[in-house]
Design brief:
- The protein is built from 17 helices and 17 strands.
- A hairpin with a 6-residue loop joins strand 8 and strand 9.
- It has a 5-stranded antiparallel beta sheet with strand order 2-1-5-4-3, sandwiched between helices. Strands 7-6-10-9-8 form a 5-stranded antiparallel beta sheet. A 5-stranded mixed beta sheet has the order 12-14-15-17-16.
- The protein is elongated.
- The chain is α+β, with helices and mostly antiparallel strands.
Length: 594
């Protein structure tokens, strides 16, 4: 795929590539971004408008709730008023003046708002007292009303009633009323009925400032307050009904399609079961957004046209000097780096031409350096091959002496020479610096065999390495410097027997090897000094003096910074060195002496 793209790009001029890439990278994402951000932006604005509408609805709803609470409180005070109860128990118990005081003072003062109220108290014997003049036949109308029948069936309930006309003589405005049964406190005997009413327009005053069509509906969806008085008492159309949203006290939805699309906001008044429903045409809400969208499209089109013209101009300004440069470079293709380019053109092109001329000289120097280095490497390789002759000769000689000692019965001398030959075999430089864990263990066996000549039975080594780890890859001479340190600095000064334990474990994909001795240990100051050497890079001379650091640096160079050595120990408790290296299967090498 990359090859095809590279071939295609070679066939298209840089001018056209610049124009195409700018259009592809800048203009098309701009158009896609503009398109895909438009809908989320509209949704975000719709949500914000919805939140604003909900806040306004909530404020109106709370005002209406305060009004209904005021009506409820006032109704309770009237039904519990001793004079009202006394009047219902015995209509003749109060004088005409006391009835007048009750009618004009007690029934009117309970309202805590400036709204127009109408209060009527009636018994079941044809008596009625009201806060405003009411004709006598109204009593019979109330007594035969549906709402009174329902109230008699359930005396403990509160009924909210809407009427398109008032019961009073002169004021015929629509009213919203609270009907409540009045009972005798001691016996709960039904004494009469209270009808507490407010003008519909007083309730509408709380929602009149809201945008669009706003309706106050009761629990059945009947409109009880609206700007359109002709719709009072009618049922709100089903598509605007919020009866299905019983789980939500407020919310927003969208109904209709096209030009009939509308946003419906609602707020439920829990105390009465009423709902405020606001209906706003969708186009009215988003008219400004649509206008801004059209303006954005026009501005975007103009910007894109200007951008294309500028892109063509910039592409021509860049491509023309480069075309001249390409022609000259093609003409100098066979001049073997001896024909520099004449510096000419804009600043950036001049820098490119100057850099190219510098690169010509650097390439010439680099080629010469590579030739010289190759010659030196071949010379060193030849010397290394020659250098292997002497170790091979010595190794073969040791093997001959070893077998001579065996034939003469000098078995101990033969074993010494065999161990020495094993050490020498491992030290001969072969093609790789890598080894297997088994080879390293064999090397340590030979080394310990020689050390026992000095320490005899005082020194012993124990290996605890699973079979599956023997062919793990290691670097050469990884264990010997650490074992040598264990003997020299730990076991040599130990009065008893010294034991070195080499243990191998595989944790996930990491090979963990520990070398632990039971020697005299290491003091805190020396341990801190060694750890400090392990945590920083030192020069080669210091590394050679410290075997631990030498191995640590080689492990890090071979496998990375996450691997290496760690050392720990205490005086009198021995020393432990832990290797961390990746678990890799090694091939191992077998040395065949000539």
């Amino acid at each position: 795929m990359n090859l095809r793209l590279g071939t295609l790009s070679q066939k298209i001029s840089i001018r056209n590539q610049i124009i195409f890439l700018i259009l592809l990278i800048l203009i098309l994402p701009f158009l896609f971004t503009f398109y895909f951000l438009d809908k989320p932006l509209e949704k975000a604005i719709k949500t914000k408008i919805g939140h604003s509408a909900q806040e306004a609805l909530t404020l109106a709803g709370r005002n209406i709730e305060f009004t209904t609470e005021d009506m409820f409180t006032a109704a309770n005070e009237i039904t519990q008023n001793p004079s009202v109860i006394q009047l219902l128990q015995d209509p003749k118990a109060l004088t005409a003046y006391e009835k007048y005081e009750l009618q004009h003072n007690e029934l009117n003062k309970v309202s805590r708002s400036n709204h127009t109220t109408y209060v009527a108290v009636m018994d079941y014997s044809g008596n009625m007292i009201t806060s405003r003049y009411t004709e006598p036949q109204v009593y019979n109308e109330i007594m035969h009303s549906d709402w009174l029948t329902r109230l008699n069936e359930s005396p403990n309930q509160l009924l909210w009633i809407f009427r398109k006309t008032n019961y009073t003589f002169a004021d015929k405005r629509p009213t919203v009323s609270l009907a409540k049964m009045i009972v005798e406190p001691q016996t709960n005997r039904k004494l009469g009925v209270l009808l507490y009413s407010k003008a519909e327009e007083d309730l509408y005053s709380y929602i009149t400032g809201l945008e669009g069509e706003v309706f106050l509906t009761d629990s059945s969806g009947t409109i009880i307050s609206s700007a359109d008085k002709d719709r009072l008492g009618s049922v709100l159309p089903p598509q605007y009904s919020v009866m299905d949203n019983e789980d939500n006290s407020r919310g927003q939805t969208t109904v209709g399609e096209g030009s009939d699309k509308k946003i419906v906001n609602f707020y439920k008044i829990s105390q009465t079961g009423w709902s405020i429903v606001q209906i706003v045409p969708y186009d009215t809400v988003f008219k400004e957004i649509f206008d801004i969208r059209k303006a954005n499209f026009m501005m975007s089109g103009i910007i894109i046209v200007l951008f294309v013209l500028m892109t063509v101009a910039i592409a021509n300004g860049i491509s023309k000097p480069l075309i001249v440069m390409v022609k000259k470079m093609t003409g100098m293709e066979n001049n073997q780096f001896n024909s520099p380019i004449l510096i000419n053109g804009p600043k950036e092109i001049s820098v490119l031409q100057r850099t190219y001329n510098q690169m010509l000289g650097q390439v010439k120097d680099l080629l010469q350096r590579v030739k010289d280095e190759y010659k030196q490497k071949e010379d060193m390789r030849f010397r290394a091959l020659q250098a292997q002759i002497n170790p091979h000769f010595i190794l073969n000689t040791l093997n001959n002496i070893k077998w001579t000692a065996y034939m003469r019965g000098e078995r101990e001398v033969g074993q010494m020479l065999s161990s020495l030959a094993g050490l020498m075999e491992g030290s001969i430089v072969r093609g790789s610096t890598m080894n297997t864990l088994k080879d390293e263990m064999d090397y340590i066996h030979n080394y310990i065999a020689l050390m026992k000549l000095k320490y005899n039975e005082k020194l012993d080594i124990v290996f605890d390495v699973p079979e599956e780890l023997l062919h793990a890859e290691t670097i050469k001479f990884m264990l010997q410097p650490i074992v040598e340190n264990c003997i020299e600095h730990g076991i040599d000064q130990l009065p008893g027997k010294g034991i070195i334990e080499v243990k191998g474990r595989l944790i996930q994909s990491t090979l963990i090897i520990t070398v632990r001795d039971n020697g005299v240990g290491v003091d805190e100051e020396r341990l801190a000094e060694i750890k400090n050497w392990l945590n920083k890079t030192t020069d080669g001379a210091e590394a050679k003096r410290i075997g631990v650091q030498n191995v640590h640096e080689r492990l890090k160079l071979q496998y990375g910074e996450d691997f290496g050595l760690a050392i720990d120990g205490k005086p009198g408790e021995g020393t432990t060195v832990t290797y961390r290296l990746p678990f890799l299967q090694g091939k191992g090498e077998q040395f065949n002496a000539d």
